[in-house]
Fold:
Amino acid sequence: MSTAEVIEWQAPEYTFYPKTMNWYWGVGIITIVLALMALFAMNFLLVVLIAVAGFAVMMYGERQPDVVKFAVTHRGVRFHTRLYPYDQLKSFWIIETAHHRKLIVESDRAVLPHIVLPLADHVNAENLRKHLIHFLPEVRQEESLADLLSDYLGF
Structure:
């Protein structure tokens, strides 16, 4: 395997979970309860913010994911049009479960340091690992709480 090799694939930017009517009812009820609590506290700005947030969550829940191009090259990891050079990355880990396959790359960013790339079915995880090990250490990483929560909530 050459370090000049490019591993490319396309995948949806996230896993889309179809929403049931109960999901919408749940979001609506939670929004109403939170808005009523803010109303009883006489915090009218918070009532507006909660209403807008509830509406945004419902709209985002219906959004279909875009198909994005990913690549791992000799220069770095590319997510859509953004290249993360290896000198800005700390480590990587590949997660393979029955439900999903993901490449998690830890960056040197202070905010949101984990970059999660979904792997397409045709991407050979072992070849990807052999390529990345030339540039980054392999360090076990877990999915962030935000990723786990969004999967649980159906986002």
